[in-house]
Write a structure and sequence with these properties.
The protein is mostly helical and 107 residues long. It has a single domain, classed as 3-Layer(aba) Sandwich (Rossmann fold), CATH 3.40.50. The chain has 5 helices and 2 strands. The protein has a two-stranded parallel sheet. Helix 1 runs parallel beside helix 3. It is globular and about 40 Å long.
Length: 107
């Protein structure tokens, strides 16, 4: 999925990254990206790839599941088909701060 890698390779890579973060006694947060979907893009209803929840549960880390998908579902928030524009980045930052507050990582 990411970088057009097979899903299992993406899952393994995320697991390795999370393990390295935990070695340094940091608190990782997993940020889900939308699964590729032409229908989701056209209907403005992208959603996170299912495997993020599985990775978060397996590695016992917090997951911010819908922030990126919600921003990228709005064509006015996109600079291109895959990335937020400046307004989209502001909205995404606001969503991330709200999510971090709700899980207790930011006051």
């Amino acid at each position: 999925m990411l970088r057009h890698l097979p899903q299992q390779e993406t899952i393994a890579n995320l697991g390795q990254i999370l393990a390295q973060i935990k070695v340094h006694e940091a608190k990782p947060v997993l940020l889900a990206t939308p699964k590729p979907s032409v229908a989701g893009a056209v209907l403005r209803n992208l959603s996170a790839a299912d495997f993020y929840r599985e990775v978060a549960d397996e590695h016992q880390v917090q997951l911010i599941e819908d922030a990126v998908a919600e921003v990228l579902s709005d064509p006015q928030m996109k600079g291109d088909p895959l990335h937020p524009n400046a307004r989209g980045h502001v909205l995404l930052a606001e969503k991330l701060i709200d999510s971090m507050k709700s899980i207790g990582y930011v006051r």
